[in-house]
Amino acid sequence: MTHELTAVQLASASSNADARGGWWRDAVIYQVYVRSFADSGGDGVGDLRGVRERLPHLARLGVDAVWLTPFYVSPQADGGYDVADYRAVDPLFGDLADADDLVRGAHALGLRVIVDVVPNHTSAEHPWFRAALAGDRAARARYLFRPGRGADGAEPPNDWESVFGGPAWTRVADGEWYLHLFAPEQPDLDWAHPEVPAEFSSVLRFWLDLGVDGFRVDVAHGMVKAPGLPDIGRGAQATLIGTEPLPFFDQDGVHEIHRSWRRLLDSYGGDRIGVAEAWAPTSERLALYVRPDELHQAFNFRFLNCPWDTTAMRTVIDESLAATASVGAPTTWVLSNHDVVRHVTRYGGGERGLARARAAALLMLALPGSAYVYQGEELGLPEVLDLPDAARRDPAFHRGAGQDGLRDGCRVPIPWSGTEPPYGFGPAGSWLPQPAGWGGLSVAAQTGDPHSTLELYRAALELRRALPGLGAPGGGRSGAAGDSGAAGDSGDSGDWEGPATGMRWLSAPEGVLLFTRPDFACTLNSRPVPVELPAPGRPVLSSSPVCTDSRTVVLPPDSCTWWAM
Fold first, then answer.
1. What's the pTM?
2. Of the listed 26, 82, 218, 378, which one is catalytic?
């Protein structure tokens, strides 16, 4: 038995979150990296029309919403996260009519649409910055220009480093320097200037009026810098992000920006939401972004970064649930995105990596709260590790001492059908080369195969909707706001029940996680060998075939199983 649900017709159980506290509290949200999802135009680049045509795949998968990476006018210095016009679609991806069609088409299929907004910086081609470089002092005041240090101002204003490597400052012709925490083509805005927040409120209203259901806020922790822009006093600063306090990230002033955006979102009907991409040094700091008057969700990168180790997993789960419970918010869970190595590869690659990735997916989808799925993970795609240097587009690849510069490997266009590239991605090639041998991983190849990763995801999402104990905390899917609670003390290996999650840890052998939720249990065996234990119920879904006589069960290596109780 691998996917019991593939042979069982369950009544469609739509979320009742709208009536009981917000659809986002237990939503499964699918991330589309637009340029790598589907190409309708034959130029090898994914586009909005391509996404629109492939929406039935997402509806059949069973997700609740789709999050689109930036499709705005951009020179594409950083994959569209360098925006030159926030109110227009880049011709590379289509036009505003295509965006409107996509939103309407998604809504017709019962899918909500979340779009990226990039408020920390603009493109260097943005009209504001072009005016600033031309000497317009009013335009320059919207950015962080500063005089240099040293007798002739030849040294940067401070020692800050770009996340992509090298100094975070670039000098312009008149001798001043401007701040860019990312690429030089992405100058940081000065959010203390009143025209900046006013402009972004207008941008948000523009897309809300078009019908989008919310925003993923890029670098939500970055818009405010410490007064005086103090030195950090050490190098390798990118390695400190999310682990130590930094004067350019997670400053308290960002929260007033998010409060103002929450008021704007609440002024629209239909439960529009804001999602923070925020790095903070502790779970408690991250929880501040999802207080009742701020954003609705924040990405839980601690879960993404957790090693394949049950002690570490339980600690992250407990601390994440406890932190969000303190502010009455749902926890989010994510395993991959467009900035990290795909988790099949992170977990070891090959058969072992795939087995662990499948198990981790079931674990993620069994936890209280909301889950994010990155395009292609439902296919079990590995990272592409052998892209030629000439094909790489990641700006960090061409700079030193920042990120590893290898983000292109998780952005390779996904396979839809066929046995040779571009595997149905579009009528021509693809902007990044696809590996030979991906035909067996395509949507078409996996559809109908009960042992495939795609059918595992479909079954899991169907079951997640059908079982009342899954989804949001509070004893049932789509629990009311404020129901979240800690799952237990990670130092306690015995039975423990959270105060409000309906989640209870039970004793289990070393290397095994076992928890229950109402009428449901989940087991995860992280060990490379089978483990026998008393059967907690009737198996309904497993990432690998399980053997049980109803009294005991032998859990396969690197596997996760769901149980009805």
1. 0.91
2. 218
